[in-house]
Amino acid sequence: MDAPEKKQSAAAPKPTKKKSLIKWQKPNVNVMYALIPAIIASIYFFGWRSLLMLAVVCIAGFLTEFVFLKAYYKEPVTSAVFVSCFLFTLSLPPTLPLWIAVVGIVFGIAFGKMAFGGFGRNIFNPALTGRAFIYISFGGPLTAAWVNHIGGGGGGFVQYAADAVTAATPMMRITQGLDVSRLTMFFGNEAGCLGETSALLLLLGGIYIVYRKYANWRIVLSTFLGLLVPQTVFWAFGIGNAIDPLSAIIGGGFMMGAFYMTTDPVSAAQTNTGRWIYGAFVGTVTMLIRTFSIWSGGMMFAILLGNMFNPIIDYYVKRAKSRGTAA
To answer: What predicted TM-score, i.e. pTM, was given to this entire model?
Structure first.
């Protein structure tokens, strides 16, 4: 009697392991670690509302990707969605209505990522896709209202967010010929987007992800050179609205774009030569947009344009290499 029971027990199916809703990937997790100082600084400069906005955006972004994956791919949500949510939130003004932030991240994840097939298949950076959409659709809230940072000991950790609105960001004031302290721009106690004001913290986090090889150094270096070289020439000869090279680097979200957004491993160029071309393209186009357009920024559009040309760049780089090998 015992033998059949043992046989039946041996043949019994093993309990299935419950699938996780999120697939955590080490590179993405480390990029989020690198952004934590900028997030903490956003609370200090602008109050706890920045953390609320981040939470709302993360929930909306996660649910958007989850719905698509549940319906079509039956795969867990990757941690890459939270990197997109972090970068998207840190690129927003402190007073932006939460519903606009939700619209932006939903659009970015749905049309900038999932419409192409999900993680690893998207052409454009999802965070910038969402930001570009609300930048065009809701220009007023994105560009017209900037709050001064919260001063005093403890900053936004102990004080309520300031209601006073300043007329312009440091980059806007510089292009208008007004004097702005480069030191305050570097440390971040200026009006601006939540996570873009402190060039120092973005630089430290950027160096960390480059050192850990989560960001390609060729793209970062070529982006800096692509901006610095023509920026210096244009500024020296007084061409257009060219500002000084130091301000161009530490202002307008350039640090965030150069370290965290151009280096997106999916939407960036995939060949080493292509990475040099792509970074130089982004840096130069950023300078041109800032100098000759009404926008004091320009990094967002430059990166999206670079994303669009990357497949072509890689195609011709590989073609040239194969011809050289054949010869």
So the answer is: 0.89
